[in-house]
Amino acid sequence: MADTLCCQGLQKGRESMKKIWAGIIGTALSCMFLLSGCGGASKSMAADSTVTESAPAENYATDDVYLEEAAAEDGGGAGSQLPEELQSNRKLIRTVSMQVETEEYDTLYTNINSRITALGGYVENSDIGKDGYGEYRKRYARITARIPKDKTDSFLESVAQESNVISKTENIEDVTLQYVDIESHKKALETEEKRLLELMERAENMEDIIAIESRLSEIRYQKESYISQIRTFDNQVDYTTIHLYIDEVQTLTPVEEPGAWVRIRTGFVRSAGNVIKGIRNFAIEFVIAIPYLMVLAVIVLVVLLIVRVIAKAGEKKHQRFLEERRMAAEKKASEKKQTNGGTDEPKL
Q1: Distant-in-sequence, close-in-space partners of 13: CB < 8 Å, separation ≥ 6
Q2: Is 216 exposed, middle or buried (0-12, 13-18, 19+ CB in 10 A)?
Q3: Which residue in 106, 108, 140 sits closest to 126, CA to CA?
Q4: Prediction pTM value
Q5: Is the dihedral of CA 9, 14, 18, 20 positive or negative?
Q6: What's the mean pLDDT in 179-187?
Q7: Measured distance CA(219)–CA(222) in Å, rounded
Q8: Which distant-in-sequence residues (6+ apart) come within 8 Å of 289 by Cβ?
Q9: Are the C-beta atoms of residues 230 and 179 closer than 8 Å to each other?
């Protein structure tokens, strides 16, 4: 009995030891799996960080390398002078504003538009209208034209010869440094794009490919923006912007301040011209109004005839009324005479 109990106790002890060792082994295996998983995850995260950070690092490196090359080619930094090649090919944006007046508005306007087309330019904006009131309204034109830079001076000279120039302003903006800076950024992006494409060919991990594609999209977007800015600068440099203000006038404004005698003569001529113009306008308006005057005359004549007929009818009626009153008075007087015995004396 005692031996049996002892054997059972030993057996239970062995089973409990087996359970303990099984728990220890299971725990050890779990720890190994966890450690291996963490190691793989850390490796993957390290790889991801390497891919995602490689592009910006390469961007900065590329920018630095290119800027150093650009500085070496330009002979210094942004504060230094431009090289001889850029000095002879500076990027200058020219803008001219010109106010002119003319007595021959139609001729000048037609010639200016024809000249713009002949020189290879184009009209960017145009505004045409009239100022003033009544017969003194004068026409005007506001034109914004783009003329090739090598033909700008000839165009301005032709406008000055055909009109009276009141004022002229000119502005030149040098955008050479901005232009070079934009080109440098564009070339740096192109260099980075080329290197990323090479990395794309060697990439084996899908996450690396996605990261490279994302950076390539950003580069292409930035590059298109720089290309658009370069095209805008090229257009502004190659074509001069000219703002023309054209006014129609009756008498041209003298360029120099006139003397007293000239002012008297000019004023007298202007006044005489206004008088003649007023008489001419009156004659024109009178001739234009003749049909209306004829209709009005007919209406007045008809009204006068009607009034005359009514007046005659009223006069006849009035005379008839007076005649009746006279006859009534005579009849009454006759009756009264007969009553008094045939005499005009009253009875005693």
Answers
A1: none
A2: middle
A3: 140
A4: 0.50
A5: positive
A6: 94
A7: 5
A8: none
A9: yes
Mean pLDDT on 297-314: 89
211 sits in which H/E element: helix 206-238
Bridge partner residues of 154 (DSSP): none
- The CA radius of gyration of the chain, in Å to the nearest whole number, is 55
**Surface-to-core class of residue 150, CB atoms within 10 Å of its CB (0-12 exposed, 13-18 middle, 19+ buried):** exposed
211, 58 Cβ separation under 8 angstroms: no
Query: Which tokens belong to 126?
Result: 């145009």
What's the residue count for the chain?
Answer: 348
> What is the maximum span of the chain, computed from C-alpha positions, in angstroms?
204
pLDDT at 87 over 50: yes
SS3 346: coil
H or E segment and range at residue 130: strand 122-131
| The pLDDT of residue 221 | 94
* Domain range list for the chain: 85-248
Instruction: Specify the CATH class of 85-248 in words.
Output: alpha beta
Residue 57 or 261, more confident: 261
